[in-house]
């Protein structure tokens, strides 16, 4: 994308942290009902799969003697990951169409679910697996330090605390720029790994802004999810306690139609989570676009060496 096209673009403009967040929210609210309707073919099955996973997580028999159920959990988890990738691809496909000047009020299913969507879904899945792999390395390191046996000479409680603090700081420093890798992989114009590497470099150079936006988005998502998922948490605990009581031979006194309410609450909570995916991705997409503009302007202002 040359400089003239960048300046005329809706997406590729320089924005501060606050503007990335506010315009990211506005992008969703301006066409909220239409976006929700257009994404229903993915959000509905996604909600059903997540609701099933939540229900199985509240069922203690899955852990005790549910070999078949554990296999079902594995299949549902894989399906959930795939549907998440498709949904994230839908978010970025809408951003692409909006950036191209497409009239969002006239957007149709055929236009949105075109051939251009599926390469984005594959990229979203690949970058998700890559980020999960990198994150798992730090998770394993945390687990290793926590489980280290105490020793009077080498391993003490103080040394484990110091190790956990140092590892936390290193993880925070190295993992924060990864948040730009998803928009980089899906919006970049070059190869997959080069796009991811470039996005990570931009995130590292603008670490403070990336961290600030992630902190703001994380706080908002945490507050909303805590308020909206509270019924699902309460119902899930009731379901789990009831199952444990039945396994121990105790009487269970649950209200009539409790299972129906459990299903409705779990599906509704999972559907709300799909809307939170917008809030997690769109502001970061704006920040990636802002970093791209800043990088191109920086290189454009550099004079060639003689």
Question: What features would you describe in this structure?
Answer:
The chain has 306 residues and is mostly helical. It has one domain (3-296). It is built from 13 helices and no strands. It has helices spanning 3-8, 17-30, 32-38, 40-57, 61-65, 67-99, 109-112, 117-147, 157-175, 181-187, 192-205, 207-247, 258-301. Helix 10 packs across helix 11 (192-205). The radius of gyration is 23 Å and the shape is globular.
The biggest beta sheet reads: none
Please mark out the parts with pLDDT under 50 across 5 or more consecutive residues, or reply none. 1-7, 302-306
Q: What number of domains?
A: 1
Average pLDDT: 82
* Radius of gyration from CA coordinates: 23 Å
List how many beta strands DSSP finds: 0
Helices, by number, come to: 13
Shape category:
globular
- The rounded distance between the terminal residues' Cα atoms is 27 Å
Strand content: under 5%
Structural class: mainly alpha
């Amino acid at each position: 994308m040359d400089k003239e096209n960048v300046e005329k673009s809706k997406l590729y403009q320089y924005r501060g942290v606050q503007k990335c967040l506010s315009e990211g929210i506005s992008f969703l609210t301006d066409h909220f009902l239409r976006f929700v309707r257009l994404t229903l073919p993915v959000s509905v099955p996604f909600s059903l799969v997540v609701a099933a996973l939540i229900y199985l997580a509240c069922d203690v028999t899955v852990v005790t003697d549910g070999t078949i159920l554990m296999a079902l959990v594995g299949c549902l988890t894989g399906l959930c990951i795939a549907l998440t990738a498709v949904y994230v691809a839908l978010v970025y496909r809408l951003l692409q169409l909006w950036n191209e000047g497409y009239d969002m009020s006239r957007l149709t299913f055929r236009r949105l679910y075109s051939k251009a969507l599926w390469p984005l879904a594959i990229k979203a899945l690949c970058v998700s697996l890559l980020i999960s792999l990198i994150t798992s390395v730090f998770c394993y390191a945390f687990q290793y330090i926590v489980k280290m046996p105490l020793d009077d000479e080498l391993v003490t409680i103080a040394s484990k605390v110091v190790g956990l603090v140092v590892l936390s700081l290193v993880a925070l420093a190295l993992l924060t720029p990864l948040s730009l890798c998803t928009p980089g992989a899906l919006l970049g114009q070059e190869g997959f790994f080069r796009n991811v590497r470039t996005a990570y470099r931009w995130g590292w150079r603008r670490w403070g802004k990336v961290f600030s936006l992630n902190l703001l988005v994380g706080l908002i998502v945490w507050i909303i999810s805590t308020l909206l998922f509270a019924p699902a948490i309460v119902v899930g605990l009731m379901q789990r306690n009831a199952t444990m009581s039945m396994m121990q031979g105790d009487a269970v006194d649950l209200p009539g139609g409790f299972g129906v309410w459990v299903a409705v609450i779990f599906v509704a909570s999972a559907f709300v989570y799909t809307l939170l995916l917008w809030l997690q991705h769109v502001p970061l997409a704006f920040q990636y676009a802002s970093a791209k503009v800043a990088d191109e302007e920086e290189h454009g202002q550099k004079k060639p060496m003689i």
